[in-house]
């Protein structure tokens, strides 16, 4: 296996992202194998923890992106790319030189160094980070991440510096029995910029190793969702999307335009 190989689990049209990232033909998703976090509730655990996938050369990855564009993808959606940053940087640059015109989306967990992010300046057009935790104890307990809050805040600052708040969408998924964690996370995001688009996720399911933690071994309740939603409103967020609990996790269409929160 060449030292510059890149492990990818799947690529193709993906319709599970926020509305402006999907369009008619979907996002051109590339799901990378492995992850730098160990979330016990990971919904893609077979990819992130199980490490399924096959190795591609930099040239094959470049062709993959150009092929997705030719197939009508709205963007190149790089899912969990952090641990592969050094190997994918050059293929992205070459693809842009060879005709990649659609936006490159960096879809990550925000647990990444500013050094990595600075090396991507000019290559990434849209940042789509999760801001998973506002509490470091929860971050370590459920994801094995140390000093997550500080790292995520610095990463988010760098993302905003590079592409502006208008090109950053921050996701936060509500965890059961963790309303205060969600409130702290929303506060941290607001501290970076009030103009960031927020995506509030309600689709949590107790999968993978969640059954080892009784407090998160269930779906979130309507009361928990409403408490976090109301706090988001109090903080004054005005751009973004919210998943409707009653429509199986689908995003409310044009939520920010029709129902500013």
Describe the SSE topology.
Elements: E1 6-14, E2 27-32, H1 45-48, E3 54-56, H2 58-70, E4 76-79, H3 85-97, E5 104-108, H4 114-118, E6 126-129, H5 136-143, H6 148-163, E7 169-173, H7 179-192, E8 197-201, H8 222-235, E9 240-242, H9 255-258
Helix pairs in contact: 2-3, 6-7, 7-8
Please explain how this structure is put together.
With 261 residues, the chain is an alpha/beta fold. The strands form 2 sheets. Strands 3-1-2-4-5-6 form a 6-stranded mixed sheet. It has a 3-stranded parallel sheet with strand order 7-8-9, covered by helices on one side. The protein is built from 9 helices and 9 strands. It has helices at 45-48, 58-70, 85-97, 114-118, 136-143, 148-163, 179-192, 222-235, 255-258; strands at residues 6-14, 27-32, 54-56, 76-79, 104-108, 126-129, 169-173, 197-201, 240-242. Helix 8 links the parallel strand 8 (197-201) and strand 9. It has a single domain (6-258), classed as Aldolase class I (TIM Barrel), CATH 3.20.20.70. The protein starts with 5 loop residues before the first strand and ends with a helix. It is globular.
For the residues shown, what is the average pLDDT? Answer: 93
CATH architecture: Alpha-Beta Barrel
CATH superfamily: Aldolase class I
Derived structural class: alpha/beta
**Secondary structure tally, helices:** 9
Number of domains: 1
Q: Shape, please?
A: globular
Helix-strand pattern: EEHEHEHEHEHHEHEHEH
**What is the first-to-last residue Cα distance?**
50 Å
How many DSSP E strands? 9
Low-confidence sequence ranges: 253-261
Major sheet strand order: 3-1-2-4-5-6
Rg: 18 Å
What is the CATH class name?
Alpha Beta
**Largest sheet properties:** 6 strands, mixed
- Helical coverage, percent range: 25-40%
